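Hi there. Long-time user, first ticket. I'm pasting a complex I've been working with (about 736 residues overall). I'd like to know whether the download I got is complete or cut off, because the file seemed smaller than I expected. Thanks.
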Amino acid sequence: MELFDFYDQDRWPHVFCPGCGNGTVMNCFFRAFNEMGWKLDNTVFVSGIGCSSRIPLYINSDAIHTTHGRAIAVATGLKLSRPELDVVVFTGDGDLGAIGGNHFINGCRRNVDLDVICINNNIYGMTGGQASVTTPHDYISTTTPFGSKEYPFDLAELAVAAGANYVARWTTRHVHELTKSIKRSLEKKGFNFVEVVSQCPTNFGRRNKMADPSALLDWFKESSVRRDKVRAAAIDHVDLNLAGQITTGEFVCRDRECYHEKKGGGAHRDGH
Amino acid sequence: MRPGIDLRYCKGCNICVYMCPKQCFSNGADLSVQGYFPAIVTAPEKCFNYGRTEKLICELCVLSCPDQAITWEPEPEEEEEKDADQTG
Amino acid sequence: MPIKPGEYFLQGNEACTEASIVAGLKFFAGYPITPSTEIAEGLSSRLPQTNGEFIQMEDEIACVSAIIGASWGGAKSMTATSGPGFSLMQEAVGYAAMTETPIVIVNVMRGGPSTGQPTRASQGDVMATKYGSHGDYQVIAFAPASVQEMFDLTVKAFNYSEKYRVPTFVLSDAEIGHMRGLLTVPKDIKIVNRKEKGVRRADEAYDVPDDLVPAFPTFGKGHKATVTGITHTPKARVEPEDPKVHQELVGRLNDKISANRRDINKWEVIGPDSKTMIVSYGSASFGGREVAARDDRVGLLRLKSLWPLPVEPIREVAEKCEQLLVCEMNLGQLFWEIKRVALEAGCKRVELLAKIGGAPPTPGEVRHKLREMGVI
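Hi, the file is complete. Here it is re-exported in full:
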């Protein structure tokens, strides 16, 4: 497949700032998508509001760009009404973790067959760099000029606890690992969640002495810790994240029955 | 194959320069029509895939380029000869 | 199987449930809230029997978002709510209007603001239905006043929603929703389905026809449809900066409803030549109907649709009568709109009988008000 079989060339180049990680995630996603042999005509891309949620608007496919935070709710309705379609959600940390947090945890719990790619850039990029739920403690944003007092959300860990079928976290520095994880998530049924820690040089890096995209990528490389190693050493990975490190890897891979595999029936019928 | 940069799309973030393990790229100094300073491929022959046509490896530049500006191009024959001359 | 033609003794909410199945409902997302819960409960068993999908979502925003998603999948979809849930849904109502998504929202109104009176009727959401979300948009709203109308108008709500690609409301209230009464299901019920895009040619994919309602590009059929709430051109390109694009888009979204007002509006008149006309709708019209049926001096204009504002019937009665009395179960919402139209039409006097608290105005209260006005 050629690049512009996936993207709408008329809309190129895209709106993202120089050095933004969204494009990297698009590359990895479509590499995995292509390897899986999925068809654009059979796939619908759903997103909310934010930088990462602009991605579906560039894809040469059916796409719905919904209101802030509601991507998973819309995708749930769409998937249940047309189970034969593949539904992929592109979302960001603010969209998924803050305003859409309720839909996110309930989506994981409900386990509808969706693939959710969350591009976590630690900031509200589109509105100009306000602190988000994943801004690391003590980091600067336009709404935390003296450093963030709060501690960040661990979205992947949240998804594990809420019951998602597949959870992985990588950074934009780990492109091959990310591609592999996206492929796994496309393969699997149920609610699959891949979080990508991504760079926002314009709004996050610039205010935190990492204005160059490569400085942010370097930071990802330095602070990434593989989850299996942390586990082996019996260190609490959530504590690591709170300290500003990033646990990467596959968090969970299980096969819970997904929502629309179960039709009717129910416990009460067993008695008859 | 060798990496090539599409000047229409490159926004000059230089992520390729950072990512490439073989230092094939370097920061550009010429302003493009879009108003950026696109990176340049200064040492394509160092690339792992130079001389390969299939089963490409590495691909860190192509996968991480946020603007979809890097693609694989076949090595121009003249350039190969020229390179050979230079090394010879 | 949808309900068979015949006579039934049903609750208003049950009539709405059955009507939605008849109209072709295939997806319902609900969240429990008094007094609309019976609709979700009913559909949780009825939809699986009719090859549809029922889901209980985590909140009302999720409900309306889910039905928008299902609607783009091609399924006729609906949700039902009341009071606080309706407030939550407003965000997505604007989105559905902007993206021209056909959805039906049943609002079994209860006393507000806030939690208010969960079990008592009210008509406090009339203005919120039209003006609840931000920006300029138009919706269609029907106001049933009996179990039979709960059935008929729910079917109509689906038909108009599909025809005009617009969020459509059934503004019932706790009184109608929980009332039991006779329902006659007719043999032939007219069902309208959305005009689907058939041709796969990119250049005509988003053409705007004369009726201002573009064909619906259902997902998964190769249309490569882009749906966005950002201001977009007719070819679905995002253009948030261009004043002309915004004016054309939002202008058309409003025009497609107001230009088709005559097709949409439904009403009923008792005693059209009376000197005094009562204008009312929903359960607030019970008292007025009794009075109008027994007194030649008093007539009744009962609005079955509230939005777009039925200007023509109001103007018609206002031209002929001497005074209007508007009966509402709120502190005067549609009253101001009716008064504006009536005064423009030459009617001298427009009064309001406003009653909140949950009980519809009784015939005695209506007569008392008319006596105060000195007309009976």
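A couple of notes from our side: Residues 2-75 of chain B form a domain with the Alpha-Beta Plaits fold (CATH 3.30.70.20). Helices of chain B lie at 15-19, 60-64, 77-87.
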